Every structure is written in structure tokens, then in C-alpha cells.
What we know:
The structure holds two protein chains of two kinds.
Chain A: H1 10-27, E1 30-31, H2 32-39, H3 43-54, E2 72-73, H4 75-81, E3 83-84, E4 86-88, H5 100-112, H6 122-134, E5 143-145, H7 152-162, E6 165-172, E7 178-191, E8 194-201, E9 206-211, E10 215-224, E11 246-253, E12 264-270, E13 276-283, H8 286-294, E14 300-304, H9 306-325
Antiparallel strand pairs in A: 1-3, 2-4, 6-7, 6-10, 7-8, 8-9, 11-13, 11-14, 12-13
Chain B: H1 12-25, E1 30-31, H2 32-38, H3 53-68, E2 73-76, E3 89-92, H4 94-97, H5 107-119, H6 126-138, E4 149-152, H7 160-170, E5 173-178, E6 187-199, E7 202-209, E8 215-219, E9 228-230, H8 241-255, E10 257-262, H9 267-274, E11 279-280, E12 286-289, H10 293-302, E13 307-311, H11 313-329
Amino acid sequence: MAENTPALQARDRLTFLLSLVPFLIDRGQVSVSEAAEHFGISEEQVRQAVRLIAVSGIPGVTATYQPDDLFDIAWEEFEENDEIVLTNLIAIDETPRFSSREAAALIAGLQYLSALPERQDRDLISGLLVKLARATSGLPSQVAVADTETNATLAAFKEAVASGVQVEFDYLNAKGELERRRVDPLRVESVDNDWYLRGWCHLREALRTFRLDRISKIEITKEPLAHHPTELPLPDSLFEGSPDDLDVEVELLANAVPLVEDYLAVVKPMGTDGSRVRAQIRVSHFHGLKRLVNSRSEVMRVIGPEDAVTAVGDWARQALERYHSGQ
Amino acid sequence: MDAGGAGERIPVEERLFSLVLALLATRNGLTKTEILSTVQGYRQKYAASSDNSALERQFQRDKDDLRELGVPLETFEPLGDEGNNQNTLYRILRTEYELPADITFSKEEASLLNLASLVWREGSLSGESRRALMKLRSTGLESSQPLLDYTPRANIRDKAFGSLSVALEKRQQVEFEYLKPGETNSTSRKAFPLALVQFQGRWHLYAVEVASGERRTFLLRRIVSEVRASSADSPEIEDDSAARALAELKEVWSSHKATIRVEPGTDAEVRLLQQEGSNRLSDGRISLHYVDLHILADELAGFGPEVLVESPDELRFEVLRRLETIAANHPVESGVSNG
């Protein structure tokens, strides 16, 4: 959490001020580094917030913000020891309630978890839903995620990470080749209804992304993990490039760009109305490309190289032949 | 202490923070003039004897922002002086603002909430999740990193999600261009959002369409324009819309059934069999459920010759149509003999 401290927007900074005060009241005294760690933001962001709180308050009876109308902190402790102690309190005692959308985000998150091995027991989640509704100012927004079956494959990965060992499984790649892989699980991601495991593949000695629905015969080994989820940074792109990747030029509808974002290398608008774009995508082989393009027939087509065009077209022609012969 | 002269720029969060403090501290409420002339961030721009309309608009936006952030800013008319909006009073009631004191989270609940807030790290719910997590931390909830990292990616990148969730909360009417399944031209739709639900990994808008007055379900990724919201109030308020939307989708999913022939040992066989609700019939064919025929047709076209759709006819037709488009768009290499 703390390694990733994004720039905060004004509404984040306000929420942080309103959240920090009750935390400081509760703790009595806390160091800047401890508060930063607790909230998962940078130490400088904490110092800025404390400086602002220290000079904030209410207009007061004179309507001129007299010292008694302002928060105060133990300045020496703060300036010299990086420690925070509030010495005068104004207006705020407790944590604010959740907004409708904040509650909805948590509720949708809890529902999403129901597909994961974290689901634990239902009672815990339903109890939390009741609490969240009460902890919201107004009603939580109507945002929900459908219940899905718990995924047994995910449970095996979690168990492997918990016991610090590698997993082995059969993997059927897009070319139709079946291989036994040994992997350190690092992260599980989903795109729509497709789930992916990202991990360190001991066979390829590299980061690899595996489709969960192509994995079978999982076995939890006794070999310790070579890489732990917290140690190995993962690139944002779901698919790792390799020097053997093929560059393919495609044309697609501009509003379909998000559908292939994970594959895109370069995008340049074309035409006068901007409704279509030419893009370069990277694929590891034509087997992947023909599946990608064939499942997006209405929004994209391959421009070149020629053997890519042929591979994609042939995949469709072979299928059409099946329909025409009725086999 | 004078916290700033007229030329000094007060950061947004300082103005909003000062407004929250002032409105929490007042028992009897403050008038707009009192707020603009005395609260930090406004008072620096307040002119006692001239036009303050820009500042009043600023205050209007700030009120909206605070409410959106869950701060229950209320307005009321002083007793005996109703109808005179010069005297409208503003305050924040502590009991409505504060998290109820009896709400605490056990260790197990805390770790679930942590994980739930991490689920939407990317996309439109990320800001909401981030702020919810700050409030949870405020109560002393410790951070805990899940053992294995789970991240949904594209499923909430649907551009429309952010604007729709705001409109949903503000009960606004929305207008957008919608690309109906199987069509290439979009049509303009007006609707009152009732719920946003994720079913089979895809986000749907459940809404009352203005033209027909009927409830409709729209797939977010088929919304191809910006979502424009207008402030017409929605005709009805229901607190079980999300559950109803999911129940309706589940019903559609259960009643739509396809039968597919697959080549043994292929990618198509492995993946289709893993789908929720799919099963292998005694003669080896696969039967599966779906919500949107066109999405399934796209997926099946991607499997090329590995699958052959048997039923329903409409699905078979759509897959064939796609395959023909692809074949026509990707002709065999010129100069190379076909035979």
C-alpha cells in the first residue's frame, strides 16, 4: 500500500483531513511516519495536512478566527521530532460517515469477493452489508455484483502463496499445446468474465500470464516460492512482450480501442471523422491474433503483414467450411 | 490571527474543511451571508457592499461537493420566517455526520473491508474506494495486504460508469448513444438510472426508459457516447433495484440456452466447459447459458473451426455472418495460388 502513493485530488485531501483528526484524537500522540504508513500516503502529505489542521478552525464569536477558535498542535514535538499531538480541538470528534458511492464501492467490492476464496462465511459479509448501510449518510447507491461460483483454482493459488510454495498445472496454450508448468503465483486479475493468473513461470524463467480456464490438474508442490507477490513488481500491461513478438497493423473503430487496449502498442487516428483508427498491436503468434480478431469481427480488421491477414481469414474460412459441410 | 489577506490563494480543501468545521460547530445554523463573510476561503473574496454572485456560485458548488462526499449539509428555514430564502440556514448535524459510535469492525471484517476497497483500485470506483478506505483507517482499522493480489481490470473501465453512478445518486435523467446488439448505428436513449449491476463480469445499467416508461437493461460497453445528465428528478425511488436487476438478468441467462459442437482437446472445449452453467451432453456436445446473443456470437466466432453452433438458429446465423465478414475482410494473399 505505502509503496504506491498516488497524487491526491482536492476531495481526497479533504477526506484525509476529516479522517486524520479523529485518528489523531484517538491515538493521542503519533509519529508522522506511523500516520503515513497507517493511511498509505507519503509522509510529506501527512505533514502538509497537519500544518493545515493546525491553523484551521471556526470563525468564533468574533468571526475573526481567534487562537481559541483554532486547532493547535504541540509545535516543538512536530518540528523537531516529527511527532503529532493535537493540543486544541475544534468541532470534529468522530470519523465521518461514508457517502452513498463510497458505501456502494465497498459493497460492490464485498460482492466481487464472493467469487474468491476470501468469501469466508456468508454471515460475515451479510453482517457487514448491514453495518455499511447504517454507516452511510443517506442510502448506499444501488450498485451490485452478481454472486458467482467460488473458483477452486483460485483457492489453490491462495493456499500455495499462504504456505509459500510453488504450484504445478497443465496449461493448454492458444496454439493448442499442452505443457506442465511450474509457477509462483503473484496476482489474479479479471477482465470481464475472464480470469488470469500472473506469475513467475519456472519453465520459461519469466513473468507469464495464464488464463484460468486453460489451467487444469493443479498440484501444490513442496518447493518454496522463488518470488513472493510483494517482491516482484508487475508491469501494468497484462501481456508481457518478448523479442519474438510480431507487430501487426490493424484498423478498428475508435470506440473499440478499449476492447484491445491490453494488446496495443501504437495508435494513430485516421480518416477525417476520427471514427476509425489504425493501430499497431503486438502478438506472440498468429494463433492468438486470429482468435483476437475473429472475436471482434465487427470492430477490427488486420491490414498487414499479408501472412497475418491470411492467417486470420483462413481461421474464418476453415470454420465456414465446417458449417457448409455440416461436419 | 488573520489567516490570509485578500491576495492569498486558499486551497480548495482548506475552504471546504473550514466550511465543514463552521457548520458542525453551529447549533442554530448560519445564513449564507454569514458563511460568505466569515468562513476562511470565502471571506477573503467577500465584498460587503457589492455583487457576490461568483462567490455564491462557488458556495453552491461546494455544497454539492460536500454532499457528494457524504457530508450531510442541511438547509432549513428559521421558525416563523418560512419562505424567505434570504434567511435560509445551513448546518451539519453531528448525529448525521458521524459514524454511529456502536459501529466497530472485527479483525475478520476489517480484512474483508480492506480487500473490498482494493478491488476497485483502477477505474471509476477507485476514488470512492480510496476515500472509503481513508475513513476506515480513521477508525483505527489496520491495513493488511491480502496474501494474493486480486484486481479486476477492464470490467470497470467502461467509460460511462463514472457519470452513471453520479446520475444514479443524484437521481438525474441521463441521455446517451446506445449501440444495440447486432446493429452498426447507435440510437439516442433517455433514461432514469435505477441501478448499476455487474453480471457475468459485465456492468449493466438498469433504468426506466423515458420514451416507453419501461424498465430496460443496458450493457455499459455498448454506450458509445458521453453520458449527459440533466437534473429532472427521477419519477420513483426504489431501494431494491439492484437486486431486481440481477434477478432479471439471471432469469434471462437461465432461459437462453445454446448447444455447441466442439473439437475434443481444443482451447474452445476447455474454456467453454469452464463457463458457469455449461455442461457436456451425453453425445459430447456442450450446452451453455448466455445473456447477450451477440457477445456469445463474438466469442464463438473467435474459436473459428473449433466450434460448430447447432442451436439456436439465430446464434448460428450471427456466428456465420461474423465468419463471412472476417473472410471477406481478410482475403487470401494475392499472387499465391489457391489450389
